[in-house]
Amino acid sequence: MADFIQALGKTFIQRRDVKAFQRKNGAYNPIHHPWTAKDIRLHVEGKTTLGHYLVDHDGLTRVVAFDIDFDDEEYRTKSGEKVVPRDVFSDPDHFARGELTQQVRSLGDGLAWRMGRLYPELKIMTTFSGSKGLHIYGCFGEAIDANTARSLGQIILKSWGGGEVFEAVKGKNFYKACSFPSMTVEVFPKQSKIGSDGFGNLLRLPLGVNQKTGRESFFYDPGAPITELIPVDPALALASGSLTSRSVL
Questions:
Q1: Rounded to an integer, what distance in angstroms lies between the CA atom of residue 60 and that of residue 68?
Q2: How far apart are CA 151 and CA 155, in angstroms?
Q3: pLDDT, tens digit, for every residue of 38-56?
């Protein structure tokens, strides 16, 4: 367990002087205290939920990430029923959940595949966020310039084939595409340096429990049927990484 905790922190966390605790309403409280192995262990065990700020004081990060979320606007299923995608995805027994899971997997796995093809040196991991979508990570294995990481994320979006275009909405960090009308993609890091608030953008650390929904985050199996999200052993996912990109080729 100790080796896994160390590897999880080293893979994702660049800024180590501050962390954020998630409250029951989903909001985060920043805490100016260095990360410890105990912090990460308690997060993984579901006893607390932590977010990590992606960019440090030198403008460096360790990841490029896509946060894919279902929208809360009405969507018409293939059978003609009107549903709210976000509500459907949170209900494992809903008749349309398989259809929407297929959509979010198609988008998430497609982004993972493009990461692997364009940047084979990345360690790529795909996770269920514990809430309304997926997180797709490209981990560099070392600190890199945050602006470079952000540019790579935009290049990956632009590489989508078949004439698909991801258009920016709500500023420069959120994107939508015609083929995925029920979802919005958010690109991280959002900034090239720490924000004026002294913190900047954060992501919830993979695994653990989403405090707002009570659902666990997990690495999912990209080789499973596309209408399902099947957890995989987190230590294996963290060790193999690029297995994700090869699995969706």
A1: 23
A2: 6
A3: 999 999 999 999 999 999 9
